[in-house]
Amino acid sequence: MRHPSACSTSRPSSPPGGRTIPIPGSPPAAASAPGRRQPLAALRRDFPVLPRPGYHPVDTFTPRGAFADLLAEIEAGALDRAMSAQFGLDFIALPRLVTVRQVSAAHEGRPHTDSASKVATLLLYMHSGWASPEGRIRVLRRESLADPVAEVSPEAGNIFAFLRGEHSWHGHTPFVGERRVVQVAWLRDAAALERKRRRGLLAWRLKGLFGRH
Question: Among candidates 30, 23, 3, 9, which has minimal Cα distance to 169?
Fold first, then answer.
C-alpha cells in the first residue's frame, strides 16, 4: 500500500465543478460523466423523489427525463470504459449495480472499506449548493473519521471513485437530510451481483415496513 500522503486530487474530464479523489492503495481515481453529459440542472430537476434514507435499487422507482437518460448511459457502459482506462482493469466484463440515494440518516457514514464482493465503487454526487461541513466523504488512513487524507463535498458534479481493498477506508460524518448521490458498484461475478440485489431489495422493503430514519 502506498503512503496516504501520495494521494492527490486529479481533474479528469468530468462534469462542471467535478473532481475525483483516490483512496490509499489504489491508483488515482478518475471517471468522466457518462456519454452526453446530461446538464446538471436537468439532472437535479429530474432526480427521483426517494424520501427513505439509504440507497434505492433502480428497479424500486421510475426514473424520468434527464435522470432516466443518465441511468441509460450508465447501463450502456459509459462509466465502464472510463474506469477501465483509469484503473487498467476490464470493467466492461464486470457485473454492475446502480443504486440511488436522496436522503441520509444519522446512523450512516461510518468508516468502512466496502465488501470483498466489490471490485470498485463510483459515487456521482448531485446535490446543489452543499454548505454543511458534515456529510462530506472522507478518504481515511484507517478506520477513523478523525484521520482523513482528503475530503469530497457532495456538491453536484463531484465524482469519487476507488478500487476496493483491505485499506480502502472511507466514510463521512453524520448528516441528516437531503444528500443526493448515484452509486455505481462493479462486482466480482454474477453471483455476487445477485446477492447484492437480493440484500438491497430486502433492506429497502424492511425500511419501508419499519420506517428506519
Answer: 23
